[in-house]
From TrEMBL:
Protein's UniProt name: IS6 family transposase
Organism: Commensalibacter nepenthis
Domain of life: Bacteria
Domain DDE: 73-208
Metal-binding in keyword set: no
Amino acid sequence: MRQDQGRHFNGLMIIQAVNWYLRYCLSYRDIEELFLKRGINTDHSTLNHWVLRYAPLLEKRLRSYRKPHCGEVRIDETYIKVKGQWKYLYRATDKNGTAIDFLLTAKRNIKAAQRFFIKAFKEEGLFAPTHIGTDKALPFPKTIQTMKNEHILANHCVHETRKSLQQGIENDHFRLKRGIPRNGCFQSFHTARKTLKGYEAILWIKKGLGFKGKWTINEQIKLIQSIFGLNNNIPV
């Protein structure tokens, strides 16, 4: 990771700020104050720039660390407020909570659902699901049938709409979104899309990405460092 556009902040400091923002319920001004207490003078707008630049990069590089899901998939959408209007975040996990994929869309319809299914199970699919659980929203049955017709899903893939199947992914929505209210709402779709990639990436890391053994905050930070080519420890 090179120095950020000629600024005097090093890579460790930048990634520390990005990790703090995405992991904890801190505003940009909170992080600005934390750095100031350490004798480091930065600005909340600079911190915002770092998050928008490096959060998507973290998510992109983490994709290669994801493990295949178990085959039984849960798909649901949750609401995200952007510029005062509700938008829709499609998300998929397996029955064990393993992350599969996500997609922020402006609308909740068949076209949006199809885009998500293609992203999750064709472009970057891990294994084809054998079972898909959803709520009873109208776009899902038609979308799943279309995906079968286009051979993105297998014909034997079972679609279920039992509410009990959705409890796990609904809880996962809460884990993702609990830091978002501090923002009130995102100011643009572009900002929301980039920042949400970072929130999802940190949640993937917290879940362990299939790593065995001890998985403390220190191990998680070491992984983030290695992704950006940083070898020194970042204080948490």
